[in-house]
């Protein structure tokens, strides 16, 4: 039986918590790494995202880049 990781795992989701259509994207070890990965994903595909702590069952980070692509394309 594998030993549990000392680093907590966080799930990244696309969508707004509580809305229909929230989509799981991936799991990442470590809070800093998960926030960084969420930012990378949000920059590549604008929209609302959040990081969920499996351990605490809490949302620990949120970003929404909706509208960023249109602003950047217009520049």
Task: Provide a concise account of the structure shown.
The protein is of the alpha+beta class and 75 residues long. Helices cover 28% and strands 35% of the residues.
Question: Count of DSSP E strands?
Answer: 4
The whole-angstrom Rg is 14 Å
Neighbour order of strands in the largest sheet: 2-1-3-4
- Please outline the major beta sheet: 4 strands, antiparallel
List SSEs in N-to-C order.
Answer: EEHEEH
The helix/strand class is alpha+beta
Strand content: 25-35%
Number of helices: 2
End-to-end distance: 54 Å
Mean pLDDT: 88
The percent range for helix content is 25-40%
Number of domains: 1
Contiguous uncertain segments of 5+ residues: 70-75
Shape, please? Answer: globular
């Amino acid at each position: 039986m594998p030993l549990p990781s000392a680093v907590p795992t966080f799930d990244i989701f696309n969508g707004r918590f509580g809305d229909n259509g929230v989509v799981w994207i991936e799991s990442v070890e470590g809070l800093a790494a998960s926030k960084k990965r969420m930012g990378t994903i949000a920059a590549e595909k604008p929209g609302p995202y959040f990081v969920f702590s499996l351990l605490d069952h809490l949302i620990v980070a949120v970003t929404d880049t909706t509208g960023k692509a249109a602003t950047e394309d217009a520049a």
